[in-house]
Amino acid sequence: MTTQAVPGRLLDGYADILTEATATGRRLTREELTSRRALGAQAAEAGLAWRALVREHLTATRAHGRATRDPEHLLATAAQAIDAFAEGYERAQRMIVRQEGHARREFIDDLLHGRAGAGDLAARAERFGLRLSHAHAVAVTEGPAPYDDTDAVPRSLGDELLGRFGDRDILLGTKDGRLVCVAPAHQDDVLAHFAKLSRAATDGGRVALGRPRPGPTGIAHSYEEALNTLELAARMGFDEPVLHAADLLVFPVLTRDRQALVDLVLNTLGPLEQARGGAGPLLATLQAYFATGCVTAQAARRLSLSIRALSYRLDRVHTLTGSDPADPRDRYTLQTAVIGARLLGWPDTAL
Q: What residues does the PucR C-terminal helix-turn-helix domain cover (predicted)?
């Protein structure tokens, strides 16, 4: 910023203060200090750079110094005046930062939950670097601890993303203790890098990415998809560190008609509760069997069982349910029922 960009009014009275204080050898009065603080606050509210403001004060001090006989007292007076100016500047800037932080958090809340009108959100979005005419996708990272905007983790993530991608229509923040990143749909490299950085910053947190959607309501839907994906991953015990909602669309389809899913689980797997030890061990056997592509040896290793013991359990499933896990005709129904059982928390949760 050039010196011409600093309005002359922000130095009002500075030359008079230097003249009077150096002539009498006195310190600045309370009124003079108050006036400096007020002008410093005005400079902060105008968004002026501190470096340019200091340069202007030093230039004025140097010009006055040519006529003074007491340069040491002149410098002491200038230091006192600039210190008061800086105090007002910093106090106002802290207030601006707090207000900006509050406005940012309020905007993120309204954007992710779709609580404001599209026009209002679009107008406010420009202030934070988003153009809501584009389609956007949302990534959410859940770590071992909750985070807010004042924590080091989101601040460092913001610095790294800005350093790598610059001003690319990106919004980074926190919501309900999770890290959230909103980026244009055509810039999937942004969310991929956010996933990588946030996992490292949160010591292996899990990341979910919603599908790209247009408009402000699309961002809210993408965010909701990411949250649902995190919840689904926890319920299903998925090991993948980064999950895409687009890859898991079958699960919302299954849960759309809950009563139908309950009927499927109870009618197909309910007889397993007659087994010694309840349905749990046999259900775990089916989960391992299907997860390994119905390869008996791999499923046995996963469960730390012998192949003979695993085969016995599969026979018990066949006997109790009437459905043979090894028969392709029965396998689809059994596997769908097993997925439904995990989604519903059965048999630990009564249906």
A: 282-338
CB 17 within 8 A of CB 28: yes
The residue that leads in pLDDT, 66 or 203, is 203
Task: Give CA separation, 158 vs 152, 165, 198, in Å.
Answer: 10, 10, 10
H-state helical runs in the chain: 14-24, 30-45, 50-65, 71-113, 118-127, 152-165, 188-201, 215-236, 250-256, 258-269, 280-291, 296-303, 307-321, 328-344
CA distance 334 to 321: 9
Q: Which of 133, 43, 29 is nearest to 90 (CA)?
A: 43
Q: Which of 8-22, 38-52, 118-132, 267-281 is modeled with the greatest confidence?
A: 267-281
- Reading the block at residue 332, the tokens are 């689809």
Contacts of residues 165-171 at CB distance under 8 Å and 24 or more positions apart, as own/partner, are 165/190, 165/193, 167/129, 169/129, 169/130, 169/131, 169/134, 170/129, 171/108, 171/111, 171/128, 171/129, 171/130
Per residue in 118-164, pLDDT tens?
677 877 887 777 888 889 999 999 999 999 888 889 888 988 888 88
CATH class of the region 127-247: alpha beta
CB 310 within 8 A of CB 287: no
Domain boundaries, the chain: 3-97, 127-247, 252-344
pTM of the model: 0.66
Angle at which helices 307-321 and 280-291 pack, to 10 degrees?
A: 110
Fold of 252-344: Arc Repressor Mutant, subunit A (1.10.10)
Give the percent of the chain with pLDDT over 90: 48
User: What b-and-e string marks burial along 185-194, b requiring 16 or more CB atoms within 10 Å of the CB?
Assistant: bebeebbebb
When pLDDT is averaged across residues 189-196 and rounded to a whole number, the result is: 93
Phi, psi angle pair for 193, to nearest 5°: -70, -35
